[in-house]
Amino acid sequence: MKRIGIISDTHGYLEDIDLVLAATAHEDIDMWLHAGDVGDDARYMQEHTDVPVYAVRGNNDRMQPLEPREQLIPIEDTYIYMTHGHEVSYYNRIQELIHIGRAMEARLVVAGHSHHHGEYRQGDALFVNPGSIALPRDKSGGTFAIVTYDEGNFFVEFVYKQDIL
Q: What is this structure's pTM?
């Protein structure tokens, strides 16, 4: 079993990253994914946690060094495909990202950019947008996600900021 913390669109609000890391400090998180905006935030996360942090570049990431535009991360018997998502048209965006990920044999596809949290399943693939803990646009009050991969199945839990304050 693997547990993956997913965060995106933190935009320099380090106090929100501190809040997320404190709220999950006693959970078995195997890795953190930061789906872009802002790359320095992912480096900050890595300095404040003992688990690996993988990050991709978002449309607001202009600092050096830049993260890659996309990552393919192995996990047990599959892969995670992660990108910020701003380079894909909004028309059929989720389906297009799943198609890209599946072409690389990824069953978990992660993207941010919209600041709207949600999940979408297509066949054996799962798309997850964790939303934004700092600047939500979906009236959620702020979110991040924890995905559990167990015996070939993905399970998503969205964590709401108001529940960890």
A: 0.96
Asked whether the bond before 52 is cis by omega within 30 degrees of 0, the reply is no
Q: Is the dihedral of CA 7, 141, 154, 86 positive or negative?
A: negative
Rounded to the nearest 10 degrees, what angle do helices 39-47 and 14-23 cross at? 40
Dihedral sign, Cα of residue 57, residue 58, residue 61, residue 62: positive
DSSP symbols for 108-164? EEE--SS--EEEEEETTEEEEEE--SSS-SSSSS-EEEEEEEETTEEEEEEEEHHHH
User: Hey, what amino acid is at 114?
Assistant: S
| Nearest by Cα to 66 from 74, 76, 55 | 55
Q: pLDDT digit string (tens) for 17-64?
A: 999 999 999 999 999 999 999 878 999 999 999 999 999 999 988 776
Side by side, the strands of the sheet bearing 125-130 are: 70-75, 78-83, 106-110, 125-130, 117-122
Q: Taking phi first (over 0 means left), then psi (-120 to 50 degrees means alpha), and beta for anything else, what does residue 127 get?
A: beta
Could you tell me which of 81, 141, 97 has the C-alpha nearest to residue 115?
141
